[in-house]
User: Fold 3-dehydroquinate dehydratase from Thermolongibacillus altinsuensis.
Amino acid sequence: MIRFLLLNGPNLNRLGKREPHIYGSETLADLEKQLSEFASEHGVELTCYQSNYEGALIDQIHRAEAHYKGIIFNPGAFTHYSYALRDAIASVRTPVIEVHISNIHAREPFRHQSVIAPVTVGQIVGLGVMGYRLAILALLEMIEGREE
Assistant:
């Protein structure tokens, strides 16, 4: 079975409570359950991890190379300034897709820049939680294309 890692960064543990007009009313637990079921339907085992700590996310990225075929990553606010996360992603061969629930390019100017995007295989923004499902499908396409 193909294994993917879902990483969610700071404040995503507040989904459903934090600015529901932007991020929706689903909780992180709801999202993880739905995505795990969706992944399973597509032959993927999904491991979910959330942390408000940069180092914990870096550790997960480093470990992923030995255990996962792809990473779906919503780095939250770290998107805009974490060169440490950027370097962690660049240091592994595991493909990473950056996902954001809201359209970061249509929000406050400080959110427009992603230091993560240049080292990912793609970025999905503004499609709500559907962006995570699209990332799973995109990674599957990439993985299956490599293994043929």
